[in-house]
Design goal:
two-stranded antiparallel ribbon; 2 strands
Length: 322
């Protein structure tokens, strides 16, 4: 009986902790302490995007990759040291690159409101801004995250890979408390994405003992990708946008999946599995529905692993000195 009571007490404590973590986030968190925070972040994101059209996709990816490793704690922003290789230098994050945008926003925020706005909140707000700037939905970002102190490149191996099948994707998202609907909705972030050849070229040649090209691919699209990604490939920047309207946040990504034009194997698998196909089809038909579900899933993702009692870094690339 005592053991049973102990188990119940532990479960109750965990549930209370989860509720408190979500309750700690508030859309009005900086209203009194830094009312200009969101404008400062938006200006930094907008200015960077004007000079580099790849910034929106990179910032959105940065948010996903941050939240998927240790929760939304800005661990993806910490610089490597001689003693530690950090997340940003892990293979999946090498091409994110736009960390300077967050650093620029942070520097301006430190002048306006010193020691107030966390780097984790800057990423979350910037991710919303790039979606809205690109024609996607707007939502009130819940704020109040604190910054973590640990970042390990080795942990980036737990990020979903572009070769995953639906079962692997569902398992990966479930580990973060996200469901099948969240998986399909958040995958729609690839509407702004670009990929280098290395992430999808295995689909284009010697795919299996039976098929040279992945049979789930549209043949014409596969041939075009083969020409962009020749063997050997001397162009390290060669690749493909993940949907045909790459600067617009829309539902074109899902429309492409329905005709076999997904670039990643993981993306195309969403249309080939009964658990996700119906959601892909519904988003392809109804952009408004996709926007609604994307917002819901972004809010859920933004609640993953929230730190209540951490620090507000003075510089996003370096943990504060203890």
């Amino acid at each position: 009986m005592a053991a049973k009571n102990l188990v119940c007490a532990i479960i109750s404590l965990l549930l209370v902790s989860l509720v408190q973590a979500e309750a700690a986030l508030n859309a009005h968190y900086y209203d009194q302490t830094c009312p200009q925070a969101e404008k400062i972040i938006l200006d930094a994101v907008r200015n960077a995007s004007m000079h580099d059209p790849k910034v929106p996709a990179r910032i959105l990816r940065m948010f996903f990759h941050d939240c998927f490793i240790r929760g939304c704690d800005a661990s993806v922003l910490l610089d490597s040291t001689p003693q530690n290789k950090a997340e940003k230098d892990g293979p999946p994050n090498i091409s994110v690159r736009s960390f300077y945008v967050i650093d620029d926003a942070k520097a301006k925020l430190e002048k306006a409101c010193p020691h107030t706005v966390s780097c984790a909140d800057i990423i979350a707000i910037a991710a919303r801004d790039v979606v809205t700037m690109s024609g996607g939905p707007y939502w009130n970002v819940l704020k109040g995250r604190k910054d973590g102190r640990v970042s390990k490149a080795s942990e980036t191996r737990s990020l979903p890979a572009p070769t995953f099948n639906v079962t692997q994707l569902i398992q990966s998202f479930a580990q973060r408390g996200l469901g099948v609907q969240d998986l399909v909705a958040l995958s729609g972030g690839h509407t702004l994405g670009f990929s280098h050849c290395s992430s999808f070229e295995a689909r284009l040649r010697n795919f299996s003992s039976l098929h040279d090209i992945d049979p789930s691919m549209d043949l014409d699209s596969a041939q075009k990708l083969r020409s962009k990604c020749p063997k050997p490939n001397k162009d390290r920047n060669a690749g493909q946008f993940l949907d045909s309207t790459s600067s617009a946040f829309d539902n074109n990504y899902y429309k492409q999946l329905t005709v076999g034009k997904g670039v990643f194997g993981s993306d195309q698998s969403l249309f080939g599995d009964f658990r996700t196909k119906w959601i892909v089809e519904s988003f392809a038909i109804d952009q408004g529905l996709f926007f609604k579900e994307f917002v819901n899933s972004m809010v859920k993702l933004g609640n993953v692993g929230v730190i209540e009692n951490g620090e507000v870094r003075l510089k996003c690339g370096v943990a504060n000195q203890l």
